[in-house]
UniProtKB/TrEMBL annotation, chains A, B:
<dbReference type="InterPro" id="IPR003462">
    <property type="entry name" value="ODC_Mu_crystall"/>
</dbReference>
<dbReference type="Pfam" id="PF02423">
    <property type="entry name" value="OCD_Mu_crystall"/>
</dbReference>
<protein>
    <submittedName>
        <fullName>Ornithine cyclodeaminase</fullName>
    </submittedName>
</protein>
<dbReference type="GO" id="GO:0005737">
    <property type="term" value="C:cytoplasm"/>
</dbReference>
<dbReference type="InterPro" id="IPR036291">
    <property type="entry name" value="NAD(P)-bd_dom_sf"/>
</dbReference>
<dbReference type="InterPro" id="IPR023401">
    <property type="entry name" value="ODC_N"/>
</dbReference>
């Protein structure tokens, strides 16, 4: 069994073309029903405002599969600690033996989540866009913008966040990283009204985005909601758009924006929501013209975890990183 | 984060009084509803005759909780490898951070499973017994007998196994370990008819034990079945006995002998099956006289895993074992 540190993992993996290709391949296999993906196991520790999620997926034909444990303990910042942590484990699909512990503290999740956003834009955003919009100023706000840049060029970025200093830092960081002009917006409304593609990256529990702000050509990717109580998008938006897409239909109706739209009665489970895997396979058409309004709901899937963890493992072994245990 | 090897874990933990006390305490907390125990997450890899189970339990008031990953890959023996492997992870219930990786390859599961058998006997076996019966000759056949010996004295042991050489090895090993006479039985029937307490430890998929063999004073613990398709005890046995007990009512009706009895229509989910935790708390009475026939169905619970993993961790830290990662 090998053990790899976050530092080593960061050195060999990033939001890039290769990760995009692998995650896309994972979604294709999901669409072809070549993936076994059990429901998420979740433990709540309400006394400490904490939750632990376990995700996994077995992809037929792969010699390893990942099991991911992610913790969110939201009193941690009061103690000067990060809220999120976690690791991925890799097991042999031939023997069941543990091959690796990837002590990534959520880094690989950040990468695979951002890359799913890039895939959504690849099939749903206008081919030529001018302005990218980001709601939120955290880690995913950064990774999602970098991932979007892999598949679309844009001239400027509009960002909205509630804390001014975090918005300033975001602008500085992203202008340095991408060399694109980034401006602060006064409101989510300003971002949506003036962007071609918007990515929402917040842990909001009340809708941030209203249907009145939609305009021809707009694409929205909502990646914030991954639990029943999270909600970034007003249900009426899902009713209004021309193309609805997601990572996994069964998951978004349980954990994503679709869940709230279904509860509000504007969407049925049998609705025509397309999965990224079917878009990638060409079984379904995404955006067909520059007038359509499109929407993609991301909750994060085990198949992304397996794809990124196996990739990281191979690169780490190649670079002779990590320690073998027991020696 | 600390990482501990199987070798180190074996040095500090065993089937003993202390483990019994801690597992009993865990069952009491389960009975008092002080435990959050989500359903087991399971991944099947049918191509390689493999399965991976994830169990966990959060026990209120404990500063850590365990997540256990167990693999069973039943083509492994053909490759000269053990079928079972696995590890336990320990997380802080205050921060969600990973505290330890216990690379025990199923050893702690063996211990906590055996100790649950001892608890069943503590409350359900006759106080004075002459003969202990064991069906099966594998690892649990050994640990269960040692665990039974913690709570009951017996003069002799009757063992049944299908392979003669494994029976001989079992007899030799257990006579050495316990200093008690061990004899081979010709059949499961002989074991049941001539023993006061019987423990079944097989992965059988067809019933081994029939109700015609029951006799006054008999206690049976069935620990083999922990999955829908496993079945050691004929459903009519569960209908016949005077006292029915188990580790977790919700689990045994899904994974244990109760599941088959319910399918056969001889048992209802509302049946009066007692949980070990309630027996330990004194809320319910186990055996009341030497004439009753008693039965306990064990499927293995996350609360046992958390109890044994935290115990092992504390002993390992005390003994300054393991390595810290990253250094």
């Amino acid at each position: 069994m090998f053990i790899f540190s976050e530092k080593d993992i960061r050195q060999v993996t990033d939001v890039n073309e290769k990760a995009l290709e692998l995650i896309e391949d994972g979604f294709k296999k999901l669409a072809r029903e070549e993936v076994t993906m059990p429901p998420i196991l979740r433990v709540d520790i309400p006394e400490n405002n904490g939750e632990v999620d376990v995700k996994t997926a077995y992809v037929k034909g792969m010699d390893k599969f990942a099991l991911k444990i992610s913790s969110g303990f939201f009193n941690n910042p009061d103690k000067g600690l990060p809220s999120l942590s976690g690791m991925m484990l890799l097991f042999s699909t031939e023997t069941g033996f543990t091959e690796a512990v990837l002590q990534d503290n959520g880094y690989l999740t950040d990468v695979r989540t951002a890359v799913a956003g890039a895939l959504a834009a690849k099939y749903l955003a206008k081919p030529k866009m001018k302005t990218a919009g980001i709601i939120g100023t955290g880690t995913q706000a950064r990774y999602q913008l970098r991932a979007l840049h892999l598949v679309r060029s844009f001239e400027e970025v509009l960002v909205y966040g509630r804390k001014e200093e975090r918005v300033h830092q975001y602008i500085k960081d992203m202008e340095d990283t991408l060399g694109v002009k980034v401006r602060a917006a006064e409101s989510p409304e300003e971002v949506v009204r003036h962007s071609d593609t918007v990515v929402t990256t917040t842990p909001a529990k009340e809708p941030l985005i209203q249907k009145e702000w939609l305009h021809p050509g707009l694409h929205i990717t909502a990646m914030g909601s991954d639990a029943e109580d999270k909600n970034e998008i007003h249900p009426s938006v899902l009713e209004e758009v021309d193309v609805l897409a997601c990572d996994s239909v069964s998951q978004v109706f349980r954990l994503g924006e679709h869940h709230h739209a279904a509860e509000a009665g504007v969407l049925k489970e049998s609705s025509n929501t397309l999965e990224l895997g079917h878009l990638a396979l060409g079984n379904e058409k995404g955006r067909e013209n520059d007038e359509q309004v499109t929407f993609c709901d991301l909750t994060g899937t085990g198949v992304q975890d397996t794809a990124i963890a196996v990739y990281a493992y191979d690169k780490l072994r190649e670079a002779e990183k990590g320690i073998r245990f027991p020696e």
